[in-house]
């Protein structure tokens, strides 16, 4: 099971992408998500930019540092 939440500006985490998805949650905008397995084994589903979503694949490492957007490592 995973936990879905909005990424905070000061959050910091890193993990491996296990799934990619996208959806029109509000009927007008297309949102891009990845499910990430963190180092402690927890799964989180986070929203990312379209550019990052298109550049990553399953099993890629993704990092979120405080004050920055998630990035491929």
Please, could you describe this protein's structure?
Helix content is 8%, strand content 47%. It has one helix and six strands; from the N terminus they run E-E-E-E-H-E-E. Strands 1-4-3-2-5-6 form a six-stranded mixed sheet. Strand 5 (61-64) and strand 6 (71-72) form a beta hairpin. It is globular.
Oligomer: single chain
Tell me the β content: over 45%
Can you tell me the residue ranges where pLDDT is under 50 for at least 5 consecutive residues?
Answer: none
Helix content class: under 10%
Count the helices. How many? 1
- The neighbouring-strand order within the major sheet is 1-4-3-2-5-6
Q: From the helix content, strand content and strand pairing, which structural class follows?
A: mainly beta
Mean pLDDT: 89
- Radius of gyration over all CA atoms, rounded: 12 Å
Q: Could you tell me the number of beta strands?
A: 6
Order of helical and strand elements: EEEEHEE
- Choose one word for the global shape: globular
Largest sheet entry: 6 strands, mixed
Give the terminus-to-terminus CA distance: 25 Å
List the helices and strands and how they pair.
Layout: E1 2-4, E2 13-23, E3 31-38, E4 43-48, H1 50-55, E5 61-64, E6 71-72
Parallel strand pairs: 1-4
Antiparallel strand pairs: 2-3, 2-5, 3-4, 5-6
């Amino acid at each position: 099971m995973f936990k879905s939440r909005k990424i905070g500006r000061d959050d910091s985490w890193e993990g491996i992408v296990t799934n990619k998805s996208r959806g029109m949650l509000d009927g007008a905008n297309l949102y891009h998500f990845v499910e990430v397995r963190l180092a402690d084994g927890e799964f989180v589903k986070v929203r990312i930019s379209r550019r990052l979503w298109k550049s990553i694949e399953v099993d890629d490492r993704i990092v979120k540092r405080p004050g920055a957007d998630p990035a491929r490592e």
